[in-house]
Amino acid sequence: MTRDLTQREILVELEPTAETALDRHLSMVKEWHPHDYVPWDEGRNFAALGGNDWEPEQSTLSEVAKAALVTNLLTEDNLPSYHREIAENFSQDGAWGTWVGRWTAEENRHSVVLRDYLVVTRGVDPVALEDARMIHMTHGFTPPTSRLPDGEAGFLYSVAYVSFQELATRVSHRNTAKVCGDPIADRMLQRVALDENLHMIFYRTLCGAALDLVPDQAITAIDTIVENFRMPGAGMPNFRRNGVLMAKHGVYDLRQHLEEVLQPVIRQWDLFGRNDFGPRGEQARERLAAYLDNLEKVQVPRFEEQRDRALAREAARR
């Protein structure tokens, strides 16, 4: 029986993998500039500079598109909290530190371009948007491991979380593009989604390497994250209302979470084909299998039944 490795030992062992993954990321990522994705000729002054303040009829976006864009933007706004979480649980030395800085800089573009687009096109109320940003950033991000005993969270839980979360965010951005009905928004959101996919690949690679290094510790972290997963914007104003709208209209729902996020990453790691787990790892894998089975056979069908009834009621009212 091998002993558990400390977080520091894991980081040291995985640094060569981090360096290789960073080099691959830098070779694949394409530089882009937020200002190239914003229709500036649609912009005009607000009342403080002699123009007109926002009115609802100025927006061409549907309620679903508004909910999705605001949710995605406020999620990206909380970057300082995510940076702190990653910096504390990874390292600021060597390849780790370079990645943390690079990832943060790339993520910051997303909030810049989304806000510029929404303000210039008057897609949503900029005052309400700023009020929500202030509330959300003041509260910060609470990771799903916050309830674990002291000392039990750390790198493995963080890297497992972002392996799924980055893919979930990519799916959300990509599907938001579909409901906007605007080719400019579509181009912008597809660009953001490409970034999220590359970020996911980096984290998925590192978590896969952690599974090879410390299989029992890693699968325990993965199971905890999957069973307690929540999107990083969960604490923002109107998150429940907006999340329901997004789920009802195919931006991000429970089936997508299972089939487009959880299952592809789990297959990539071959979690149910590995034979290197000890007793503790096998127990975690059994818990994970039971959770996924319940999600597929009980939770997803229940959600879809409720969604279909709600959509039918809405159609009847119209």
UniProtKB/TrEMBL annotation:
Residues that, per the record, bind Fe cation 1: 76, 107, 110, 196
Q: Name the cofactor(s).
A: Fe(2+); Fe cation
One Pfam family, short name: FA_desaturase_2
This entry carries the following GO cellular component terms, namely: cytosol
Do you know which InterPro entries this protein is assigned to?
A: Fatty_acid_desaturase-2 (IPR005067), Ferritin-like_SF (IPR009078), RNR-like (IPR012348)
Answer whether the UniProt record assigns the keyword Cytoplasm to this protein: no
Q: Which GO terms describe its biological process?
A: fatty acid biosynthetic process
Q: List the GO molecular function terms.
A: metal ion binding; stearoyl-[ACP] desaturase activity
- UniProt keyword list: Fatty acid biosynthesis, Fatty acid metabolism, Iron, Lipid biosynthesis, Lipid metabolism, Metal-binding, Oxidoreductase
> Its domain of life?
Bacteria
Which positions are annotated as binding Fe cation 2?
107, 166, 196, 199
Q: How is the cofactor bound?
A: Binds 2 iron ions per subunit.
Quaternary state and interactors: Homodimer.
Q: Which family does it belong to?
A: Belongs to the fatty acid desaturase type 2 family.
Task: Supply the name of the protein.
Answer: Acyl-[acyl-carrier-protein] desaturase
The source organism is: Nocardia mexicana
Show the taxonomic lineage.
Bacteria, Bacillati, Actinomycetota, Actinomycetes, Mycobacteriales
